[in-house]
Amino acid sequence: MSDTRSWLVTGAGGMLAQDVLARLATAGVPAVAVTRTDLDITDPAAVRAVLAEHRPAVVVNCAAWTAVDDAETREADALRINGDGARHLAEACREQAAVLLHVSTDYVFPGDAEKPYAEDAATGPRSAYGRTKLAGEQAVLSTLPGNGFVVRTAWLYGAGGGNFVRTMIKLEGVKDTLDVVDDQRGQPTWTVDLADRLVRLGRGALAGTAPAGVYHGTSGGETTWFGLTQEIFRLLGTDPARVRPTTSEAFVRPAPRPAYSVLGHDRWAAAGIEPVRDWREALTEAFPALVAAERS
Predict the structure, then answer these.
(1) Does residue 251 lie in a domain region?
(2) Are 47 and 39 in contact (CB under 8 A)?
(3) Can 107 be counted among the known catalytic residues?
């Protein structure tokens, strides 16, 4: 498969897609940025037309319904984007012999494990959001057994959009103390790191060195939201003791949050790509841009 065609990135206005496009530009790979207003992925005819027009070598699907709590009462709407939209993209990629990199989530798991979830671990989403994202995964993998890649991620942060890290940076300046959940474990992941792995995976797919299937695109190590916030305060040069641990019961939300969202990364070895680095190292490098974005 040729690497001379452009890549197409959906959801191009989002935080992750911005970094994917920046990484492609740095690598000298031509890319087509498609926003929500450019393409409604729930419209199969529109999807086919856009892919037929651009004939991309790789499609990176960053378009998604990400309002986790709203999905509890609007599951059908979320499914049209996260499930049907992914299927329409997969079918159009099959017609164009294109690779599809589909971004998914830790919410496809029940969140009750005691060791990192392997890529082939049994799924069992506990929320509407998780169910809709799992439907998208299944559509991609069944439609594109040789060209479909599912990359699950979690706890994303970056300079290009709202996220937990930027919120904590803002709150540090206006709150004396912060109560933060300490009974949910996960892997804070910088969008720049994930974008790099997506680009490398797509290039590996084109070169025939990366097998299709499921990969986990999260940072190494693990922490809680409380531990992450303490590290944010430390990087801000303030007292981490201003952050106080609490439980999920203090912040009840419509959609259940996984207590354990730690993912394993063994599959990257099959593609000859090293997993994402430790979350602390990434956060330290990302921090100046995050502070600048939040305070600009």
Answers:
(1) no
(2) yes
(3) no
